[in-house]
Amino acid sequence: MIDLHTHTNISDGTDTPAQLINKALASGIEVLALTDHDSIAGWGEAAQHLRPGLDLALGAEISCQTEDGISVHMLGLLFDSEHLELQEVLAQTRENRHGRMGKIIARMNEAGIDISMEEVLFQLSEGATLGRPHLADAMVAKGLAKSRDEIFEKWLHNNSPYYVAHYSPTPERAIKLIKAAGGVAVIAHPMASLRGRTVSVESFTSYVEAGLDGIEVFHRDHSADQKILLTQIVKDLGILRTGSSDYHGNGKLNELGENTTEPDQWEALESKASARRVVKKA
Fold it and tell me: C-alpha dihedral over 206, 211, 215, 221, to 10 degrees?
């Protein structure tokens, strides 16, 4: 099995990188991509705990925003971690997440929802990328709801009055940075409408022109009809299709390996990187 989209507690997952590796091995996964939000801080620990039978594709899920304000997530895989401009963009995105969180909390406080930045930061692992899931965890801990999903459905979705955008590159810029760093770019769950507005089908042409290598077709947030449409788009544009769990540990219902990438698609995708960067344990 090949699972190209997972998270740890370096961003909004609940497993450590070591725990993720152990669970992937136990699940029979053969290729795993570690793609924490806007961060590569978990790479070292994950690689350290790798064992024979599991190949590791290191990457990040990069937060993007179109010029008309639509949130897009771009999976960058197999890029050079020393690429300065890409790392600067990731760092700027992480830094701006703190200012954004303060604004969200202020809006909630004004509406009579009692939650503080201190309570949110208490949910954050050391060095982790701050995000709305940490606010949701703080609200669950305070007894405001029973789960992250309930919090997002009621208060934290993209169309909520408490939603605040944060700095992030356009999808095209993110793709170009990933490619400049020698990696491959795959757009994550592009039709997951429950998360908010989604990009138009026409947008994919611009992304391919920027260097997009693939589309995450098989994802639990895509309907059967959307998977069929995305498969046709992949064929028409001459790019690759992937499938992934978007695993977050206990943070979401997603299970490791619940959606996977076909071996021939992974082989073609991996060959597009500028160097062979898949981590293997002899």
Answer: -60
